[in-house]
Amino acid sequence: MNMNKKCSLKKLLPLCMLLLVQIPVPAQADKAATTAANRQTALRYLLLAKEYINDSDWDTAIAEAQLGLSYDATIADLWYVMAVAESNKGGVLRDILPYVTTALTESQWVDYNRDGARVLYADILSDTGKWRQAVAVLDTAPFLYSADAEYIRIQAYYRMHTADSIEKAREKVDSVRRIYPDDTRFPLIFFKYEYGYHLSETSLSEALAAAFITHMPQYRTVSSELAVYMATFAKDSEEQKRMLQSFSAKNMRHPLYAIVALKAGILDQQAAYDYFCSFADKKISVSYLSEFAPLITDNEVKKQFVQYLTAYAGTLVEDTNGDLEPNLVIKYRRGRPEAITWDQNSDGVNEWEAVCDFGVPVSIDLPEDHIHSVYGTYPFLRTAVFSDENGRPLVTFNLLDETLRWIPFSVKASLFLSRTPGCDFYIPEVQHDVPHLSDADLLAAASSYEVPLQEYEGAFVKFSILDGIPQSSAYYKNGSCYARCRFKDGIPDVRTVDADGDGIFETTETYGFDPQNLMHRTAAENMQCMMNLFGRPEYGNGIYVKMIQVDTDKDNIADFSEEYLADDAKITSWDSNNDGLWDIRYVRYPENKNGEIPAAIYFYLMPERKLVSVALIDDKPVTITSDKTIYTVVKGHMQDFYWIGVPGPEEMEQKIGEAVGRAGSQGVRVSVDAPPDQFTAVQVDNKIFARLIGGTTESEQSSAEESAKTENK
Questions:
Q1: What residues pair up with 509 in beta bridges, in sequence order?
Q2: Phi, psi of 392 (to 5 degrees)
Q3: Reduced to 3 states, what is the DSSP secondary structure of residue 191?
Q4: CA angle 243, 246, 248 (to 5 degrees)
Q5: Which of 161, 605, 636, 695 has the highest CB neighbour number within 10 Å of its CB?
Q6: This model's pTM is above 0.70
Q7: Residues 6 or more apart in contact with residue 422 via CB below 8 angstroms
């Protein structure tokens, strides 16, 4: 019978284990159900977002996609919707790129597929200077072939600007024009880059130009830009004139027309100048200006041109990275640069933004680094302010004049305009090899720097610097200095503080340096010290408050001091008679191995001035010793009130407490007369120790001790 039971149990145990594995734990089942529900909700938001994308309601599409992502961030389609909507809104490419990257790294596509995201990703890469990477994204298996993909490939090949890449671009144009004959993007990109790069003609490029010009009547719509570019490539002069006349008759407008029409003899110099200025009044590219200026040879028109440039108040744009997209923008006033911005890789975030006074740089902002710098004697910086993302200043460097030379661009007179029409017109030239401003460079050139403080509202600290090393610091609030600190070898040594704002620096803080944290100070203590001293938690690691001394009665003698030791130990002292020596002292020792915190209180008994030592454990008095005599600690009726030796009457405790309260709350000593008796008392660490003056006889002491023992029981 027993054997059968054992056999049954052996068969049953594996079955039970199998059931345990197959039956989900309730918590796991709930989690799975929640995940599934969240995904369904996210998919509903995806459906709504797609509808708004189709309606070109980009803001609502973004809002719906964000809601969907809050439920399930693993759906690649939602990230793609965010990227598409932001792109169509004209958003900053640097902000759009993370959405596309996330969509491509997520494998959970629902309605869309990765091809659209790859095309958008490649487009962003091409626009931000990563041309080879853009082609690689499209060519990686599975190879993407579409009008959009081919357009990006052609653009990237042109922008690589090598003989091989240009030939590949032309071959792509030749191939794609046959497959997408009505897509005007391809003739436009061909003419734009062939003209913009001043490329040498080949049999293929000539054939492509002729083919596009021939096909021009078959396009449903032709933009002004495409029409004028086509006219520049017309081989026959009569055909070119006809195309330009057609351009004008259709009320098309483009600044390049002034150049081409002037060369073709359709416009005279005065008419071409007026036409060109109608665009330049608002915005014109430097390349068009440099191409147009030499064509003006008439003296009267030259004179007008000089006057126009001398008082120029429009905007010039220039391509500085070779992709034919303007990334340097110069706003003029009175013929001189007033504001200049430069976006090196056209990602939508400017490398710098300059403000000028009649062409001379006054200040430069570095948006990415959140730095605002101001020039003194140009090209030397006077101040530089580091701010957080909300524009709140973090550090302000005050620099020695003519010390830190920093020129991210130079403003030079244009050579082509000095020849024709013959005037000094200044165009900024970007310096590509100028390093970014660093706090190390600024510190080395600084005479001082300022940091906001959290110690008080609106407070800040100003550090005086010599050879990049702090020498002293001053702390301000409401325009008044409330603290000064002296440094030693670049480390805070002593700080004096005017805590009550009366102009007297009554508090002295002495600092130590403990980089290995042998003091075992907490991270919170370290941070608070750094914030109070430097305004920044990352500055001055290892510095700690070693001692505080306070002159409360302003007689130039410290009557309170507190010294901080390792493991939360400290020594607190009071000088009640202003002789420069302590009269009352409290010592807290490190926690012992039993988890107890021992401490001691020292003071003098009056009138004989005997030193008294009170031993405490966990803040409770244990023994009182004086001249090797151990006194009984008698707990009074009041809280934290103790009698030394013989206890006095209960009503005296109240009187002594009132006297202590009138004298002060810490480290005070009082005498209370109650004829025929007199009492003396001290308060330390919120505890009052009182004694009947005159002492006791040995029998009285023994009697008192016995009485205390009985009472303490």
A1: 495, 548
A2: -80, 130
A3: helix
A4: 115
A5: 605
A6: yes
A7: 302, 306
